[in-house]
Design a protein that fits this description.
The structure is a homodimer.
Chain A: E1 4-14, H1 22-28, E2 33-38, H2 42-45, H3 48-58, E3 62-66, H4 75-87, E4 92-97, H5 99-112, H6 118-122, E5 135-138, E6 150-155, E7 160-165, E8 173-176, H7 186-204, H8 212-231, H9 239-252, H10 268-280, H11 284-301, H12 306-316, H13 327-341, H14 358-366, H15 379-388
Parallel strand pairs in A: 1-8, 2-3, 2-4, 4-5, 5-8
Antiparallel strand pairs in A: 6-7
Chain lengths: 390, 390
């Protein structure tokens, strides 16, 4: 087992109708002014926003709301949030939404505690020194943003998608109520589930060079996510299925999947996926469903990672027989088939990307080099993975 | 999956030679005066205490040391620690040791932040309102005290063993260096490993009424601990084996094994074990090795928990065939055989307890009622489990 530091201080408040349990957390931290951040209309239509507003009012906590955070959250909305937070001298940011809303809340939390423009932190012109605390209510599981230290924001002006990461961004408390997710369209649930799965697998595929118990806990999570997504069409309001998905999604990208490993995971599919999401506005989970199986095939064709892919095939995908006993190849194929079985695209062409778009995508992804450890990426490899994914 | 709150804010610093990484944590918290707490001579003989003292000196952190914490840690030593902490106006407590030293550090942390005697908090005469932060270095894994909110202290005057539990007691950071544990006598490593295993199983045996992924992560941990303890005689300085034991021990009693469950676990064996430890000074892990298999048999004989014990037998103990297909009974027997195979006692007689001691033990254990959920305990059941364990 490799040396690691694991720090996951978020208080997880998990279960149906647990949103009211967030109020004592704000009280204990002596917070009396919060900026609420939301996505689209669903949190209003469902009554959730109104219920939270009532709870805040009853608790004497002043609040304003900025809504309209989109998937692949935008810099402009973050700037709007920062201005609103400063206007009310917010002491905390309270996202109600999925990963995009949590990511935006973290960026707002940094911007509201600084005089610099938030994009300067994303381009590493400035280092984060302070951030308001984030207390959130999750309405779609997948990114682990409810517990991790990361925010990914798109700059629509430059078509760049960059990550912000700092310990100060880790939410203090997060309500994860699986029943709040019943109303999310099933295709979005699948995108988010594939996102969570890919977080486990980015770590798992790094190598088998860790202890057996680490491999086993990753396998338990990956298997569970796959089982739940497969059963989802008949289990939309099955609390246990939605709970397992929500539970595994919390830990998939909390750092937990990469404890005891030499590195924090490969993350090539994520980085190239950010380019695809940034330029073509493809949902994050869809980019991963396209890129990860194709990255596997690209790696396989170069004779690498065979033992890991073989264990993936047998321990996670449950493959018992493979043509020519080539379990590694069968594993990559089974992953692609699984994504397709969810009704998700498995090639870039299906989302409107043409071969002539590859240079621009490769150039964009190359801006966040270095990344990749199974194959340390360079512009040529990036273009190669993109061609494989065409 | 049942509603739960999980909060494990300790920063885990895991790996060989990671003790120096604790210093930046103290610095970041602006701590300049600490009370160091240790057990016996081993931390001096190994040079660890000297190395930590050097690190603290180099960092300009004033420190005093109180040593001599014993297994089944004593109230008198806690009071000595409180006095020493107050004398130097300590801002933090720094245990270097195993669970007993960490438990004592937590109690000192409470006592040093209050005018009341520490025992008044244990008897619930007073409620904890403040505690100094604890930053520790673990030298023997088993209790999860490095990450949980609990301290168990024995009052040698009254022969009582009580627990103190509060969120403020959770260590801020803990160094877990598996190589520091090589020098611990193997019988003590076994006691501590059985302690960690029992923490997982107290939760697991509660019932199967939770999600599959929760059962699977508990099974991964329990199986790993059993595998490592079985292999220990030939693997004393095998870093991977010791790492897996240390890793599973962190999470066994962090609250992680009981997320998603209706309750926090059964813990009958622990409560009765505290009586056994309090009166006869039997090491905590030994009391569990005696009581847990016998509690299982007592439960089995009343027709309860059969499905859980059956899954335990097949999924954790790896039993493939059982006489009369009675896997539940085979599981209880296999657990007892496993404890015996470690050279540990499996009956109270082996540690000098006689039948005539049972009333006093039962009376002592009854003082901490209510406990037990598989069988809600009462004085009669407590005496019954003790007779079974004779």
């Amino acid at each position: 087992m490799h040396t690691f530091t694991y720090h996951s201080p978020t208080k997880i408040i998990f279960g149906q109708d647990t949103a009211p349990n967030l109020i004592p957390e704000l009280h204990n931290a002596k917070i009396s002014r919060v900026l609420v951040l939301t996505g689209g209309k669903s949190v209003y239509a469902s009554g959730l926003h109104g219920a939270v507003a009532d709870l805040l009012n009853q608790a004497g906590i002043r609040h304003e709301t900025v809504s309209g955070v989109l998937p692949n959250p935008r810099l402009s909305k973050v700037r709007e949030g920062v201005a609103a937070a400063k206007a009310i001298q917010a002491q905390a940011i309270l996202p109600i939404g999925g990963g995009s809303v949590f990511d935006s809340a973290k960026a707002v939390a940094v911007g509201a505690a600084s005089e610099y423009d938030i994009w300067d932190f994303m381009t590493r012109k400035h280092t984060i020194a302070a951030a308001l605390p984030v207390y959130g209510i999750l309405t779609l599981s997948g990114t682990s943003s409810e517990v991790n230290n990361t925010a990914v924001i798109s700059n629509e002006a430059t078509q760049e998608k960059f990550a912000l990461a700092h310990e100060l961004l880790i939410p203090r408390a997060a309500v994860v109520d699986p029943a709040l997710q019943y109303s999310v369209p099933l295709n979005q649930v699948c995108y988010s589930g594939v996102d969570a799965l890919s977080h486990v697998l980015e770590a798992y595929f790094e190598s088998l060079d860790t202890s057996e118990v680490i491999l086993e806990h990753c396998e338990a999570y990956a298997k569970t996510i796959i089982r739940c997504l497969r059963g989802l069409p008949g289990a939309r309001e099955n609390y246990d299925v939605r709970s397992e998905l929500a539970f595994c999604s919390i830990y998939a990208h909390s750092g937990w999947a990469s404890v005891g490993r030499a590195r924090r995971g490969d993350f090539t599919s994520h980085r190239i996926g950010h380019a695809l999401g940034g330029i073509f506005d493809v949902p994050h989970g869809v980019t991963l469903g396209i890129l990860m199986p194709n990255w596997m095939r690209y790696v396989y064709d170069r004779g690498l990672c065979r033992d890991t892919f073989t264990r993936f095939a047998t321990h996670i995908m449950g493959i018992k027989e493979a043509p020519d006993n080539d379990f590694a190849l069968a594993g990559a194929q089974a992953f692609k088939d699984f994504v397709r079985s969810l009704g998700m695209p498995v090639s870039m062409r299906e989302v409107g990307v043409k071969e002539t778009d590859i240079p621009a995508l490769a150039e964009n992804a190359s801006r966040s080099l270095p990344f990749g450890c199974v194959i340390p990426m360079d512009p040529e490899h990036i273009a190669g993975v993109l061609r494989q994914a065409l």
